[in-house]
Amino acid sequence: MLEVIAVIVIVAILLAVAVSRVVSTQNISALTEADVLKMHLRYAQLRA
């Protein structure tokens, strides 16, 4: 019984690490896209 609980805890920890990496990657991607959009808007303002 103790072994089953230990395996569940280890799997939960690994899952938490994997989810946090995916979420942080998506956040970085969204921030990068926002920066690119800002640069395009500034360029359009300068050209107007």
Task: Set down the secondary structure blueprint.
Layout: H1 2-47
Short characterization:
The chain has one helix and no strands. It is mainly α and 48 residues long. The protein has a domain at 19-48.
Structure description:
This protein has 48 residues and is an all-alpha fold. It has a domain at 19-48. Helix content is 96%, strand content 0%. The protein has one helix at 2-47. It is rod-shaped and about 70 Å long.
Return the string of H and E elements. H
Discrete helix count: 1
Main sheet summary? none
Structural category: mainly alpha
Q: What would you call the shape?
A: rod-shaped
Rg value:
21 Å
- E-strand count: 0
Strand residue content: under 5%
Arithmetic mean of pLDDT? 85
Provide the helix percentage: over 70%
End-to-end Cα distance, whole Å, is 71 Å
Spans of at least 5 consecutive residues whose pLDDT stays below 50 are none
List keywords for this structure.
48 residues; mainly alpha; rod-shaped
